[in-house]
Specification:
The protein is globular, with a radius of gyration of 24 Å. About 40% of the residues are buried. By secondary structure, it is α+β, with helices and mostly antiparallel strands. The protein is built from ten helices and 23 strands.
Length: about 450
């Protein structure tokens, strides 16, 4: 076969294939991989750091296995012309496991919506630059498409190598190829263009489906002077740069507002909304800015954060209250309560208490929207977990145990559990005395799932 290249299996990762390209093959920007005659994934070729002018490197992970497999037919294909570069039949392939023996196939689900994040935004006055990461849909970076509105001048680089995703999402094929860099040139975009929303589209099984979205605040001046600054620092936590704090808060605001609107709570005069554990107000502030006429409240167990919100914002009401004990607020006074940080910290004994308190505060028919640590969160920490932990968690639908000393050491607080994990079914059961479950959506707030409940 012309231009044939050797295909190697990584000794440390039995699911990883790699090869070296030389000569005319170095012009190929990416290679397609087919497994047993079916297209699997397309991943980039990159310059060989030891000889960047003469060779390029390529690697791709195979689908996860439950049991050992042998005789898989592997074919490398040039996507420019569809020609085969090499075809081999593999010997025995062992399933991929983490250092504690947990199978990747137990954690990976190709039906799950791939997690994405966009933690960084920089605006220089003309160009908005967003750095983020998006897991390749079903392990294939070529199945992801970025959609920006018509008339928007933008460039996008994807996939770029991102070792952090590769470490945490060890079970997801080709997770290392997750990073993206997107730049929007506001000066070159047309006057009628809307450059403030970036959508992800997944190409799966011959059809396209909508994934998540990233939002850019249309009033970028709002990043000035928040959350602190030299004139008014908040001493309660390490602060990100102002633009990043506003960017993350605005995106969470848009997600919460979308979910509220979907189930009947929209910005109008007199609507009442509570942010439970509002922190420094990075989400609350955008409701204050965008929900004209609404009555916006925040409550937090940290008195310094509440003092900061009162000092910084000229509107809204902020209350200091113990957590998860009863809030110093009137019964049946809110149309909706949302919380992005409370539920992951609640042990089993406090979960019912908190649900009862949410029900007390909500008007009949009011909405509770809260994030919780479900399967996506457990998967995020799964490199520290063993098979026994995973089996117990899957069977019980609840876990507050840590089973790996390295995880405790990494956190720096040995007796602190960073997440209480709950299955969707556990949340439904524990809330059923007070609420009807409208929906549970996976990985809507980073790796946290979100529950949307209606008070009975």
């Amino acid at each position: 076969m012309a231009n044939a290249v050797d295909i190697e299996i990584d000794h440390d990762n039995p699911s990883l294939l790699r090869t070296t390209l030389s000569g005319g093959l170095t012009e190929i920007p990416a290679l397609n991989l087919a497994v047993n005659g079916k297209p699997w994934a397309t991943t980039p070729t990159i310059p060989d750091p030891t000889a960047p002018q003469d060779r390029k490197l390529w690697s791709c992970e195979l689908p996860p296995l439950d049991t050992p497999e042998s005789g898989e037919c592997i074919e490398l294909i040039d996507p420019r012309n569809g020609r085969s570069i090499n075809q081999v039949r593999l010997g025995a392939r062992e399933p991929k496991r983490n250092g504690q023996g947990l199978l990747a196939a137990e954690v990976y689900s190709d039906r799950a919506s791939p997690l994405f994040l966009a933690p960084s935004m920089v605006f220089d006055g003309a160009v908005v630059t967003i750095r983020g990461a998006h897991l390749p849909p079903m392990g294939d970076p070529s199945k992801l498409r970025f959609v920006v509105g018509p008339g928007v001048a933008f460039t996008v680089e994807y996939p770029l190598y991102f070792p952090e995703f590769e470490q945490h999402y060890w079970f997801w094929p080709n997770a290392g190829w997750s990073a993206f860099l997107l730049s929007i040139d506001l000066a070159r975009s047309s006057a009628a263009a809307d450059p403030f929303k970036i959508s992800f589209v997944h190409r799966l099984d011959g059809a396209e489906s909508r994934g998540g979205a990233v939002y850019v605040p249309d009033q970028l001046v709002s990043s000035i002077g928040f959350p602190g600054g030299l004139d008014d620092p908040t001493p309660v936590e390490l602060l990100e740069p102002n633009q990043i704090a506003v960017f993350s808060g605005y995106n969470f605001f848009r997600l919460v507002a979308e979910l509220l609107g979907k189930y009947g709570v929209a910005p109008r005069r007199g609507v009442t909304l509570l942010d439970w554990q509002c922190g420094d107000g990075r989400v609350t502030r955008h409701f204050l800015d965008n929900w004209a006429g609404a009555d916006i409240w925040g409550i937090d167990s940290n008195a310094e954060k509440i003092a900061f919100c009162k000092r910084r914002f000229g509107a809204g009401a902020f209350v200091h209250g113990a957590f998860p004990a009863s809030a110093p607020l009137s019964t049946e006074c809110f149309d909706a309560v949302y919380s992005l940080s409370a539920m992951p910290l609640l042990p089993a004994n406090d979960q019912r208490t908190w649900m009862e308190e949410l029900a007390r505060l909500l008007k009949p028919g009011g909405l509770a929207v809260f994030a919780f640590s479900g399967e996506c969160a457990a998967a995020y920490l799964s490199r520290y977990l063993d098979g026994d932990w995973w089996s117990r968690w899957k069977s019980k639908g609840y876990s507050d145990e840590l089973c790996d000393r390295r995880l405790k050491a990494r956190l720096g607080v040995p007796d602190y559990a960073p997440d209480v994990f709950r299955s969707a079914e556990n949340v439904k059961i524990e809330s059923s005395q007070f609420f009807d479950t409208l929906a549970i959506e996976p990985a809507r707030f980073g790796y946290l799932d979100v529950a949307i409940l209606r008070r009975r």
